[in-house]
Amino acid sequence: MAAEKSKFSFQSISKYMYLLSIVVVFAIFTILQPNFISLYSIQNMCGEIAPRLIMACGLTFVIFTGGIDLGAGYMVSATCVLTGLYLPKVGNWIIILVALAGLCMGTLNGIITTKLKLPSFIVTLCTQNFWNYIALSLCPDGSVIVPMTMRDVTAWMTYPILGIPATFWFSLIGLAALFVFQQYTKNGRAIYSVGANAQAARVAGVNIDSAQISAFAVSGLCCGLAGIMYAYKLRAANPTVGSTLQLSSLAAVALGGTAMAGGFGSVTRTLCGVITITAVTSGLNILSVNPLWQNIIIGIILIVAVILNSDNGDRNLVIK
Amino acid sequence: MAGQLLFKANGVGKTYGLNTVLRDIDMEIYSGEVIGLIGENGAGKSTLMKLIAGVTKPSMGSMELQGQPYSVNSILEANKHGIGMVFQEQSLVANLTISQNIYLGREKKYATLGFVNWAKMNADAKKALERIGIDLDVTKKVRDIDFAMRQMVEIAKVLDVVTETANGHAIILLDEPTTVLSDDEIKALFEQVRKMKEAGNAVIFISHRLDEVLEITDRIYVFKDGEETGVFPTEGADTNILYERMVGRVATGEFYIENRQTVATDEVVLQVKDLSVFGAFNHVSFDLHKGEVLGLCGVEGSGKEDVCAVLIGDVEPTSGKVIIGGKERTFKNPYQARHAGILSVPKERRDEGMIGILSIENNIVISHMEALQNGFILSGKKTEGIANEWVKKAGVKCVGIKQHINQLSGGNAQKVIFARALESNCPVLILNHPTRGVDVGSKEEIYTLIREMTEAGNSIIVIGDTLDECIGLSSRIIVLKDGLVTAEFDCPVGNKPTQMDIVQTMM
Fold first, then answer.
1. Is B342:B311 a contact under the CB 8 Å cutoff?
2. Distance between CA atoms of residues A71 and A229, nearest Å
3. What pLDDT was estimated at residue B253?
4. Is B352 part of a structural domain of the chain?
């Protein structure tokens, strides 16, 4: 039967979309501009993947719970600004301080969401303005450059290992740690259960509040780490660095096939999504497409990804 | 009195991935007959219903409706052919009113220029309900009525849909409609089924209760493991043969495995003192002993469910004490109750039991992850080992422990939830309708698990799916009426109270 066959192939496309999309995107851009897979371009892309990967993986946990963090982008801006401004004063210790700040921001989101029993999109829609305020009020005149004298202190973060910036390798270590958290910790599995069926998880004696809070805390921590990476990479406190990241990190999560309704997905899938999205962004840059178009294109990718992910079999796997 | 041939299935089957859940089914449905469909959970009854009702399509074989090839893509399309299904799991929209639910998707009938004539719709909805002997305020929202009433609304809805289109040759599929109904409601339902039959319609009736099937049907199809193992005319059907075809073994008299009922020790594990929840029950006190099965009996609304809700931490009591492990405790949520040693097998399996899109493995270990950690890291080896062990021990039919629980049949999913409760190591387990919607074979396996639990020194509070079950399982029974404890019965093996004894104290 023809109908059966086309349904089958459609399902398998969405099943392997997260891998397929990488191939497709690289193929398209290589055809349009062979320099796209030059060594320089790949090195560049790896450096750009690092903070995006960490941020998107953190966000993935919030999405596992069936929630969303609309303020992740501004959180990256805020933590990038904090890092850039205070780096000259405290040196590399800033990493620990800002990571903690990010953790607190995320935890605050989690506590408001669970204790006041509010939908997370409302909570984060509101709290994001606070993060944005931190970023913009500390840097009212745009980016503040980290003094040249600090170059020695920050260089290690972008030092090339095997020709690829150290940040990239750090982000892979981060990914491995998050994968272990997701797969092999109590809270990791509890986070899935909240997204899959919160009431059943509650009745089974799962501490669903702590699961949700820890998802937000991890997301906040990851935003903090991403902010730090940007500050070290750009050698500046950039108050608007995160504003385009919100959309692209969500698109990366969706493209990876993680269910927007929660309960299903993986940070490794998000890795694939991030590679694709970063490739699209740098490809568009190489082709010198107007940057204003970039977000529109990524928005379209997000919608297509969610369509492909949505339930098209009879198993209610992805969208509840 | 077989009428004309309405529907025919030729070698129909269904596979999900590698899992064949139904194979080579032949079936004939004639107008004016009621067909019974029996089999254990996972036997493929519900799957066949879903194929006929247009929920999914068969992977093999073909179907015919009144001589024409029958292949539909949706429930609505099936409805247009006069085939309607009342689902086992509720399919009403909780936030809409009863009448809106009955005419969901068919509002056009009542629309003029895009405005819906609600008054007319409500009046028709009331009529539709009255046809099955139900008098309800149809402007109430579905979430405000209980599950039994929801089932009746659902039946009224399907009846209305198919009789509208099929002019007397409708096929109505009832998938375990009686599970949540009381005896009176079942009577009203059967009355309705007979009326439909006399009007020339055909009804397919699935139930786990053999006596019901024998009472209402004309022919019985028996399924086992996705295959048809026999077709019998109901008149003169032999229950032993039916049972044997269903489970592949001969029925044993020792159904509740009473020979393994434990004698409770004197050790009190849980004390309930003067417990009250305003508006639900008052001054309930009892002790639960180690190794005991304590049955809670009472009619709907007697407060038995609410007592359990307090014990598992779902509801906070207005006054009174719960003492467990020598300490007085109030639970703010089930998490605290679990840590104190109380866990439940909930009544609404799909809403409160199964964590749908998670694997069997995760569903089993979710209540006991603390014990499976090395430091902060959960041991994958341990979780998988435990899941495999339980799947084997409880006889869960599945492809493997990574399969999603919502792909399992009701009885198999229930076994997984039992495995979770047993794995939790909680000394007190509260079983709320432990065998609701579970087939005979799985029931026996669940009863065995319950006996094993008490032999291991656990204590159990059970709200039975039937009174018979409650008596059979319990070593002691407490009866609640209007929120008060009215009687207590000892139920030693061989000297159990009769249902009559208990019913008298319930009413």
1. yes
2. 18
3. 44
4. yes
Whether residue B167 is found in the same domain as residue B80: yes
For residue B460, is it within any domain?
Answer: yes
Alpha carbon of B32: minimum distance to chain A alpha carbons (Å): 32
Based on the fold, state whether residues B471 and B434 are members of the same structural domain. yes
Partners of residue A197 in chain B, C-beta under 8 Å: 351, 354-356
Tally the domains of chain B.
3
B21 shares contact with chain A (CB less than 8 Å): no
In Å, how far are B41, B46, B210, B217, B243 from B223, measured between CA atoms? 10, 11, 13, 16, 11
User: Whose CA is closest to B41, among B206, B180, B155, B178?
Assistant: B206
Which structural domain, as residue segments, surrounds residue B178? 5-92+161-247
Contact A22, A272 (CB under 8 A): yes
Q: Is B357 within 8 Å of A314 when comparing Cβ atoms?
A: no
Vertex B220 angle, CA B218 and B224, to 5°: 170
Position A5 scores a pLDDT of 42
CB proximity A192 to B under 8 Å: yes
Pairwise CB contact (< 8 Å): B378 & A200: no
Angstrom distance (rounded) from CA B364 to CA B389: 11
- Is B115 within the bounds of a domain? no
In a domain, residue B75? The reply is yes
B368 and B259 in a common domain: no
DSSP bridge partners of B477: B295, B489
The whole-model pTM stands at 0.74
pLDDT tens for B365-384 read 888 888 888 878 888 888 88
- Residue type at position B132: I
Shared domain check, B75 and B188: yes
Residue type present at position B307: V
Q: What is the pLDDT of residues B265-275, one digit of tens each?
A: 788 889 899 99
- The token pair at A153 is 């202190």
- Specify whether B386 is located in the same domain as B481: no
CB A199 within 8 A of CB A80: no
Q: Is pLDDT of B66 > 80?
A: yes
Alpha-carbon distance B116 to B62, whole Å?
Answer: 40
pLDDT for residue A266 is more than 60 = yes
- Helix H segments across A139-266? 151-158, 166-184, 186-203, 208-234, 245-255
End-to-end CA distance of chain A: give it in Å, rounded: 29
Residue B90: predicted pLDDT: 67
